[in-house]
Amino acid sequence: MTNSGAITGLRRENLSRHSTIRIGGPAEYFFLPESFDDLSRILADVASGSLPSPLRFFGKGSNILFSDAGLSGTVVSTKRLTVLTVLPDGSFLAQAGVSMPYLSKVAAFSGRSGFSFMAGIPGTVGGGVAMNAGTPEGDFSRIVKKVRVVSPEGVITTLSGDDLDFSYRHSIFSGEAPECGVILDVLLSGEASDPAVLQEKGKESLIRRNERQPLDRPSLGSVFRNPQSDHAGHLIEISGLKGVQKGGISISRKHCNFFVNEGYGTAAEFLDLMEEVRQRVKTLTGFLLVPEVQTLF
After folding, report:
1. 138-164 b/e with 16+ CB inside 10 Å = b?
2. Is 148 a catalytic residue?
3. Taking the CB of residue 282, how many other CB atoms lie within 10 A of it?
4. How far apart are the C-alpha atoms of 250 and 265, rounded to whole Å?
5. Per annotation, catalytic residue among 13, 237, 269, 292
6. Which pLDDT value is given to residue 153?
7. d(CA 73, CA 54)
8. So what's the architecture of 84-212 in CATH?
9. What positions does UniProt annotate as the active site of this protein (predicted)?
10. 91/105 Cα distance (integer angstroms)
11. Pair 255, 213: CB distance under 8 Å
12. Which of 11, 73, 104, 191 is the most buried (most CB within 10 A)?
């Protein structure tokens, strides 16, 4: 263990423990801050050289593939920054680690629409904003009003939703080390609606996802982005790849755009299977699939 002010970090912590697909080697230094003060101390220690660079951030690890060899430097998960505040005007101020399904439930009970798409997405608000997570029902670009970010130097900046360059599964935070900084909290707002209707809509959304996706298996969610005129899962299936397995990683028979860990899979096998899929789908359908999963190596 190591200390950064009052927060204790872990040496050689296996990142597989912090990944929804249970893959990843050890982090040189690993921290789970529970407050902005904790995070500020970590940033200061990296800036002073007391903790090693590079500085890397992630949320719940639900869309990030970690290296089998692990990561050098200082690695920070924001999943314990979980304060959610319902403001008097009905908007929500969510710290980066707030669970998307939890926010969806609170919004439904509060009678605010636009959040039901989060019901079955096992990630955090910070991660969701970074990749503009969504479903056909909606995405973050429609409900984000402001985002507070902190730079590696500890400077806090407020950005409006219009500043975030949202597009399909993209924002200015996309990529391994966005220059704009790391998300602290997000102001979100939806239209007033009937809470009972919204609660039922959220339940229906979750039922559909459970029926169509292997939510009970270790995975990283959708592996590829959907091309404009088709769906990645459909293209993978018609290319004859349903159930194909490479080492400990297999293509889900329930939804072909999900790769699942059979219990002994590696990041190398995941990447090999991704490339095999991309090449087969390109050859048979003409579509070159674009990865949605992020890598942190």
Report:
1. bbbbbbbebbbbbebeeeeeebebeeb
2. no
3. 14
4. 9
5. 292
6. 85
7. 5
8. 2-Layer Sandwich (3.30)
9. 169, 222 (proton donor), 292
10. 14
11. yes
12. 104
Pairing of strands 294-296, 64-66: parallel
CATH fold of 232-296: 3.90.78
Structure tokens at 4: 């950064």
The catalytically annotated residue of 41, 112, 148, 169 is 169
Question: What is the pLDDT at residue 4?
Answer: 67
Q: Give, in words, the CATH class of 2-77.
A: alpha beta
pLDDT for the residue numbered 3:
67
Angle value at C-alpha 94, between 86 and 76, nearest 5 degrees: 155
d(C-alpha 234, C-alpha 228), whole Å: 13
Q: For residue 93, which of 145, 140, 139, 56 has the smallest C-alpha distance?
A: 145
pTM: 0.92
Determine which one of 19, 222, 239, 250 is catalytic: 222
For the chain, report the end-to-end CA distance as a whole number of angstroms: 22
| Strand arrangement, sheet containing 55-58 | 2-4, 7-14, 26-31, 71-77, 55-58
Average pLDDT, 10 consecutive residues per value, the chain (297 residues):
72 97 98 95 94 94 96 96 97 97 96 92 94 91 96 91 93 75 95 95 86 91 94 97 98 97 97 98 97 93
Residue 169 designated active-site: yes
Burial (CB count <10 Å: 0-12, 13-18, 19+), residue 81:
buried
Instruction: Please name the amino acid found at residue 200.
Output: E
Q: Tell me if residue 275 is catalytic.
A: no
Q: Which helix (H) or strand (E) holds 39?
A: helix 36-48
Q: What are the extents of the domains in the chain?
A: 2-77, 84-212, 232-296
Tell me the C-alpha distance between 254 and 243, whole Å. 9
90-120 b/e with 16+ CB inside 10 Å = b? ebbbbbbbbbbbebbbbbbebbbbbbbbbbb
